[in-house]
């Protein structure tokens, strides 16, 4: 119930993770259909980039204003930080405060004057401003890091690399919010270079107890995790897509016209293959560079046919090998018999 600076930066990280989830699963998938020339009806979804910008914008973001309060001279308190938020974020649709311009729209009198509320993708969260400035300004002074770096223990020395006299930086150490923001940016950069797989965990109850299923809580999570939009995109879209060359190489053994070698464009080979297998036209679409298969059962059918074909080919190879081996043995025995017979007739 009481959320302070720690929960704020945790929720900020969750917002960034949700944003990359949206980018890779909803936005990117729909853009791929457009790039490939697939007939597609755009499905609307909530993009939480506006919430991320509210927190991390370099000029008007909450973290930027918090750093500015920590750096400016004069009397700085949590109340002055809240006043600054009320001035800059007053008209933002995802920011609420009793003193902001949005207060006239608020019917919830339980929001204290020393708090602000952010409407995150997963719901509204109220934050107590008490301690924000001190926690963000929690710095390790330069002389302390230098003292720890001089320790004889190798582990302690490694934990304080900024204490190395050769790397002394006279600039003011970054605030806790700036360090966390930089860490999140590095995490997002690493995730963008990967091909992530998502597992969404739904919490059935708040008691961490077995055999209790809170339907309202589960529906809340499904709604705010973007799962409904994801399901709609998946149902309206295609479950599987693959470039023409790998697709033809994997399934060409299922058609006599494409096996063992197809002389022509890969897309034409895939068209011949799918027509030969009798796959309904509504089950797939041809893009500019990829084949799109709508239902998983079509892909399972292709895999089952391929598996059966591999077994048939393995049986054929084994049959031909055993025939060759027996024929080779027979010819060798026949040759030996002729040699023995000819020598026998010579001395008979």
CATH architecture assignment of the largest domain: Up-down Bundle
The backbone outline, from C-alpha atoms, is: elongated
Estimated radius of gyration: 34 Å
Low-pLDDT runs: none
Structural class determined from secondary elements: mainly alpha
Helix and strand element order: HHHHEEEHHHHHHEHHEEH
What's the topology here?
Blueprint: H1 5-35, H2 49-56, H3 62-71, H4 78-88, E1 95-97, E2 115-120, E3 123-128, H5 132-136, H6 142-149, H7 154-159, H8 176-192, H9 215-224, H10 227-236, E4 240-243, H11 244-251, H12 266-277, E5 284-286, E6 290-293, H13 296-347
Antiparallel strand pairs: 1-2, 2-3, 4-6, 5-6
Helix pairs in contact: 1-2, 1-8, 3-4, 11-12
Characterise the protein shown here.
It is a single chain. The protein is mostly helical. The chain folds into two domains: 5-138 and 174-193, Methane Monooxygenase Hydroxylase, Chain G, domain 1; 241-347, Alpha-Beta Plaits (2-Layer Sandwich), CATH 3.30.70. Helices cover 54% and strands 7% of the residues. The chain has 13 helices and six strands. It has helices spanning 5-35, 49-56, 62-71, 78-88, 132-136, 142-149, 154-159, 176-192, 215-224, 227-236, 244-251, 266-277, 296-347; strands spanning 95-97, 115-120, 123-128, 240-243, 284-286, 290-293. The strands form two sheets. Strands 1-2-3 form a three-stranded antiparallel β-sheet, covered by helices on one side. Strands 4-6-5 form a three-stranded antiparallel β-sheet. A hairpin with a 3-residue loop joins strand 5 and strand 6 (290-293). The termini are far apart. The mean pLDDT is 83. InterPro entries: Kinesin_motor_dom_sf, Myosin_head_motor_dom-like, P-loop_NTPase. Belongs to the TRAFAC class myosin-kinesin ATPase superfamily. Myosin family.
């Amino acid at each position: 119930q009481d959320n302070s600076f720690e929960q704020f930066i945790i929720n900020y990280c969750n917002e960034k993770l949700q944003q990359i989830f949206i980018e890779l699963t909803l936005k990117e998938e729909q853009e791929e259909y457009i790039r490939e020339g697939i007939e597609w009806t755009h499905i609307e979804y909530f993009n939480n980039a506006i919430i991320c910008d509210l927190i991390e914008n370099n000029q008007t973001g909450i973290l930027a204003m918090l750093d500015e309060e920590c750096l400016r001279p004069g009397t700085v308190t949590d109340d002055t930080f809240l006043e600054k938020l009320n001035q800059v974020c007053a008209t933002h649709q995802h920011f609420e405060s009793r003193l902001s311009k949005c207060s006239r729209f608020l019917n919830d009198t339980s929001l204290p004057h020393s708090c602000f509320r952010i409407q995150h993708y997963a719901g509204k969260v109220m934050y107590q401003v008490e301690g924000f400035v001190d926690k963000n300004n929690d710095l390790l002074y330069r002389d302390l890091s230098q003292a720890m770096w001089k320790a004889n223990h190798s582990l302690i020395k490694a934990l304080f690399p900024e204490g190395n006299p050769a790397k002394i930086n006279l600039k003011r150490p970054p605030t806790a919010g700036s360090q966390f923001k930089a860490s999140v940016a590095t995490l997002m950069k690493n995730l963008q270079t990967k091909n992530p797989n998502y597992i969404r965990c739904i919490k059935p109850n708040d008691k961490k107890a077995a055999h209790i299923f809170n339907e309202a809580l589960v529906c809340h999570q499904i709604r705010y995790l973007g799962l409904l939009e994801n399901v709609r995109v998946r149902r309206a879209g295609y479950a599987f897509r693959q470039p023409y060359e790998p697709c033809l190489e994997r399934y060409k053994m299922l058609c006599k016209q494409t096996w063992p070698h197809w002389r022509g464009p890969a897309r034409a080979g895939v068209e011949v293959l799918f027509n030969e297998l009798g796959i309904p036209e509504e089950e797939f679409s041809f893009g500019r560079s990829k084949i799109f298969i709508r239902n998983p059962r079509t892909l399972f059918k292709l895999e089952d046919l391929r598996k059966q074909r591999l077994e048939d080919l393995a049986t054929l190879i084994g049959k031909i090998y055993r025939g060759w081996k027996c024929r080779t043995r027979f010819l060798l025995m026949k040759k030996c018999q002729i040699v023995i017979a000819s020598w026998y007739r010579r001395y008979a």
